[in-house]
Amino acid sequence: MEFAGSDPIIVPAGEGKVFNVFGETITCKLYSEDTAEAFTMYEVETPPNGGAPLHQHLKEDETCFVLEGEYEVHCGNRRFKVAPRMVFLLPRDVPHTFRNVGKTAGRMLVISAPGGVEKFYEELSQAPPEAVADSSRLKKLARRHHIELLGLSSASPGKPVG
User: Fold this and answer.
1) CA distances from 140 to 25, 71, 144 (A)
2) Domain range for residue 116?
3) CATH no. for residue 124?
4) Partners of 137 in beta bridges
5) In Å, how far are 29, 63, 80, 110, 131 from 158, measured between CA atoms?
6) Which distant-in-sequence residues (6+ apart) come within 8 Å of 78 by Cβ?
7) At what angle do helices 117-126 and 135-144 cross, to 10 degrees?
8) Does residue 76 belong to any structural domain of this protein?
9) Spatial separation of the C-alpha atoms in residues 143 and 149, rounded to whole Å
10) Band of residue 157 on the pLDDT scale cut at 50, 70, 90
11) Which helix (H) or strand (E) covers residue 135, if one does?
């Protein structure tokens, strides 16, 4: 695998492009263009009781390293809790969701491989509020990025279900 350029890429703490998606703050640290499309690396900050809606990636696997907080994760037929310094893998084509079950914000470092998921986060964060509020438009936007949103509530499309 050959990366773009021969110089190291250094991203200082607190830096990276920030996207607000489904109530979470996603800070992209390494873009797919930086890694010859091999992966994207980003930090996810999740407020208490926040999390992603039920979804599945058709192209990427996600490896998550918990930095702070406690999360409950549903992946396929499994449900488990993770805490700081734990790692879990969410394979492509398997429906999954997670929720911060702690009393403070949780943070994870995520590597999504192959790269490209940041393009979904960028497009979603720039979408007009009426597009995000319309679950059918939101699902179409996700499908363009090889993601299926499975657990959207019509009352509040960006919120996790369950």
Assistant:
1) 22, 28, 6
2) 18-149
3) 2.60.120.10
4) none
5) 24, 22, 23, 20, 11
6) none
7) 150
8) yes
9) 8
10) very low
11) helix 135-144
Amino acid type, 101 = V
Total number of domains constituting the chain: 1
| Length of the chain as a residue count | 162
20-37 b/e with 16+ CB inside 10 Å = b?
ebbebbbbbbbbbebbeb
Q: Per-residue pLDDT tens for 102-137?
A: 999 999 999 999 999 999 999 999 988 887 888 899
**114 falls within a domain:** yes
The shares of helix, strand and coil residues in the chain, as percent rounded to the nearest 5, are 20, 40, 45
Q: How far apart are CA 104 and CA 57, in angstroms?
A: 28
Q: Give the dihedral of Cα atoms 101, 106, 111, 112; nearest 10 deg.
A: 50
16-72-159-17 Cα dihedral, nearest 10 degrees = 0
Question: What is the pTM for the complete model shown?
Answer: 0.89
* Residue 7, pLDDT score: 84
pLDDT tens-digit profile of 30-48?
999 999 999 999 999 999 9
Q: Are 158 and 23 in contact (CB under 8 A)?
A: yes
Tell me: the pLDDT tens digits for 89-98? 999 999 999 9
